[in-house]
Amino acid sequence: MPYEKFLEQLGQKVEDIFAGFGYVTILFLKVLANLFQGKMSVKLTLEQMVKIGVESLPLALTTSAFVGMVFAMQIAGEFTKFGAGKFVGGVMAIAMARELGPAITGIVVAARVAAAITAEIGTMKVTEQIDALQALGATVEKYLVIPRFIATTIMLPLLTVLTILTGFWGSYLVAVYIIKINPTQYLDNAQYMLRTWDIWCGLIKTAFFGMIIAIIACYRGLNTKGGAKGVGEATTSSVVTTLIALFIVNYFLSVLFFK
Amino acid sequence: MIKLENLTKHFGSKKVLEAVNLTISDGQAISIIGPSGCGKSTLLKLLIKLDQPTSGKIFIDQQDVNALDEEALIGLRKKIGMIFQTSALFDSMTVFENVAFALREHTNKKEGEVNEIVKAKLEMVELEGTGDLMPAELSGGMQRRVCIARALAFDPRIILYDEPTTGLDPITAVTIENLMIKLGRQLKATSIVVTHVLQTVFRTSERIYFLADGKLIDLGSPQEAQSSNDPRVKTFITGGLNP
Ligand SMILES: Nc1ncnc2c1ncn2[C@@H]1O[C@H](COP(=O)(O)OP(=O)(O)OP(=O)(O)O)[C@@H](O)[C@H]1O
Ligand SMILES: [Mg+2]
Fold it and tell me: What residue intervals traverse the membrane (chain A) (predicted)?
């Protein structure tokens, strides 16, 4: 019966997703408990912050510059047709601060950093380095998860400030020099329409993205099974899972903040 | 004292350990031999709760290992040194940092003092001057010795050796055996060696057990083990050949 097999596999998948959700939640609570007891290493956390910045910055800035440029081209092009060119600056500023900047940073870090975290921890798992760590009396939470958790939670908003700025200036260049919108008007309108609150909400969203990325990536790494192939599979699945989680969480946070 | 009570471990339908009972008194050096895949590594991992038994209990110094909270478990693990079959060195750290790991994790010793201890441990395993190398730059035998040095950094009272000499050339193997004997005397540590290298067993242990089909058979002293009448043990010791 092909249907039965299909349903069985689907059921298994759904079951796995719920089990995974449960484990991720447990890991998250453990991390919080450890943090409240002050169990963290400043040195390891700083190392991770530097690593995350270096890994993500070039890609995040390039991506946001071009996304800003292409959006300006589309929006400014259409808006000027209706004589609404003076609103482009504000629309771009709001779009960048509320959604595009956070999304670009989230996606870039999920792709680069979640993959790196899962691959590193997964390799440690299959080569028994995780066992060795525990045998020596260290805990996985303090040594591996918390430094990454804090680093992504702090670094995402910082990176997002830069992606928002870069994306906005990208849009400015295209709107002003190619579509020929008045530069003063562009900046004035941006200043008029964008509230500080928009920027804060965008940044707070990315702090949540950072937590999600670290927890899912660490969880995937720690549950890697079966050699190099297992590490590859865990890494791919880690990126896919974090991306899906980011988009879903982003929607609900946006509804909460901006509606 | 280490005490296993009806220790049972299944992986799915695979029964690796079936109600194993064993008592090891302080300072005793025992070996567990048995064919590949019989569950030797699994047994050692259960002892420090790197895995959970299906049923049964493990007591180390009267403490039920699987009932310990995190704090107490860490305390227990600090007393135990584990030498991994795969060495399992931290590949992102130098040899020095590997050996210094437990000291930095659990003590506030000054760097100078950590330096001294690490140097002494590396000398003990005859690897002076390798501190700055990365594990990937070492041979398998050297990695095994770094793993021993790392496990010893805290002067453990219990040492668990998983295949300490398997796959090494005879000279390195003898070096490691001599080290194991020396450690037993110096630290007065309790030790469990699991291996299928018989020479190591006969040289380093007071008592030998044979693990097969999930059961542990007491073979007594090395001399007694060599004259065992159990056909499985005989086959194992002679490699299936009739002497
Ligand atoms: N995590 C695991 N999941 C499923 N099966 C496992 C797992 N770990 C070990 N096993 C199985 O348990 C059995 C015992 O494994 P173990 O590694 O303890 O053997 P061993 O006696 O140390 O063998 P060797 O001498 O080759 O090192 C093997 O058949 C192995 O396939
Ligand atoms: Mg083994």
Answer: 17-36, 57-77, 154-179, 199-222, 234-258
Interchain CB distance below 8 Å, A137 and B102: yes
The alpha-helical segments, DSSP class H, found in A127-226 are 129-135, 140, 146-173, 183-193, 196-222
DSSP A47-67: HHHHHHHHHHHHHHHHHHHHH
- B91 and chain A: CB distance < 8 Å anywhere? yes
Q: Which of A41, A136, A143 to mutate against chain B (most B CBs within 10 Å)? A: A136
pLDDT (tens, 9 = 90+) of chain B, 243 residues, equals: 999 999 999 999 999 999 999 999 999 999 999 888 999 999 999 999 999 999 999 999 999 999 999 899 999 999 999 999 999 999 999 999 999 999 999 999 999 999 999 999 999 888 999 999 999 999 988 999 999 999 998 889 999 999 999 878 888 889 889 989 988 888 889 999 999 888 899 989 999 999 989 999 999 998 888 888 888 888 887 776 654
Cα–Cα distance, A25 to A23 (Å, whole number): 5
Q: Which protein residues are within 6 Å of ligand 1, measured from CB?
A: B 11, 14, 16, 36-42, 85, 196
The parent domain of residue B204 ranges over 2-238
- Give the three-state DSSP class for B73: helix
Domain assignment present for residue A129? The answer is yes
Give this complex's ipTM: 0.92
Q: How far is CA B105 from the centre of its chain?
A: 21
Count CB neighbours of A70 within 10 A.
Answer: 13
User: What total of structural domains would you count in chain A?
Assistant: 1
Only one residue has tokens 């010893």, namely B152
Range of the domain at A175: 40-258
For residue B88, the chain A residues in CB contact (below 8 A) are 127-129, 131-132
The verdict on residue A117 lying in a domain is: yes
- Report yes or no on B60 lying in a domain: yes
CATH number at residue B188: 3.40.50.300
Q: What is the separation of C-alpha B104 from the centre of its chain, rounded to a whole number of angstroms?
A: 23
- pTM, whole model, 2 decimals? 0.90
Residue B243 lies in a domain: no
Q: Tell me the shortest Cα–Cα distance from A140 to chain B, in angstroms.
A: 12
Using alpha carbons, select from A147, A152, A144 the residue that is nearest to residue A125.
A144
Per-residue pLDDT tens digits for A192-241: 998 989 999 999 999 999 999 999 999 999 999 988 999 999 999 999 99
For ligand 1, the distance from its centroid to the CA atom of residue B37, given in whole angstroms, is 5
